[in-house]
Design a protein that fits this description.
2 helices, mainly alpha
C-alpha cells in the first residue's frame, strides 16, 4: 500500500518570513528600476513578468529544505 511522504492531514504554512522577505526585496528592486527608467528615458517597463522570472530563478538557486511541497 502506498504511504505518502507528506500526510494529507499535515499543515504547511503558506506565508513565511522567507517568502515575504523575497517579495519585498524584489518589489524594491523592480520599483527602483522602473522609476529610474521612467525618469531617465521617459518610458516605464512592466515589472510583472521580469520579477516573476527572477523569483523562479532565485527559488531554484535557494531551494527550500523544510518541505517537499
Amino acid at each position: 500500500m502506498y504511504k505518502p511522504i507528506v500526510p494529507a492531514g499535515a499543515t504547511v504554512p503558506e506565508l513565511t518570513w522567507r517568502s515575504v522577505g523575497w517579495g519585498v526585496l524584489l518589489c524594491i528592486i523592480f520599483s527602483v528600476a522602473s522609476a529610474y527608467s521612467g525618469l531617465k528615458v521617459g518610458q516605464v517597463m512592466e515589472g510583472g513578468h521580469s520579477d516573476l522570472d527572477m523569483a523562479i530563478g532565485l527559488a531554484r538557486v535557494y531551494p527550500r529544505r523544510s518541505s517537499l511541497l
